[in-house]
Amino acid sequence: MNIEFRRADPAECDAAFLALLDEVHEDGEHARRVLASLRHDLFVARDGDRLVGGALCSELLVRGRTGGGVENLAVSPDYHGRGIGRGLMEMAEGHYRRLGFQGMQLTVRADNAPARALYDSLGYQAVERRVRMWKEFAPETPGGHAEANVRVIQRWTDDVWNRGRLEEVAELVAEGCLRHDAGKPARAISVAENLERIASFRKQVPDLHFINNDLVADGDRVVARFTMTGTDPEKHERFVFSGIEIFRLAGGKIVETWSSETATGPWRDSARG
Length: 273
Description:
Number of helices: 7
CATH superfamily of the largest domain: Gcn5-related N-acetyltransferase (GNAT)
């Protein structure tokens, strides 16, 4: 089994996720309302081209505390017992921790023993007759500044590069960001140039997607080990490229980057800084 877990652009996986809910005989009307109206995130598990698990989550406020809310969690019956539900939950928790949220909330039927066992094992506590459950995240350590920098890079990856929210570029990267590419002189990149570069990438490779396999923060720097996937616009073949990028941040913005050797082809300028 080679299961790929990822945070997906819901527009890419809406139909497949709703089909999965139908497969497990779960009413998809609630999910449709969430997908259409709430600020949400979709975490998926794929076996090749098949979506075999998904967790649809939203952002919520619980008694004055920010949290992630699990709206729907589903795993294909063929893949039960393989840790997919746990993997999706841990991915969702990690995402909301990086955003600085204080916990996660979910609702489970009292007679759903397998789901109850999973949530119990993950540390969720009953707050309403063992139906509505909440997990409090541990308080942030003194490394909160580094954690804030990690959240910037996560937004830079997920919102700007993967979702194309170009209106966030000026908020996340500084004017004249200094960029160091392997084997090239350092150069300053304006916000306008970054906007043009990202738009061009996404036009050439519409399914371009970055995953941060590791994010390590220390002081004013964040190191990202990433994987980039997409479809070659000339060969029409799927490609996978991995690299390492270092970001330096100041005032909540990316001000300098260093990247490993970039890929060849239309995505040769693949560094995200």
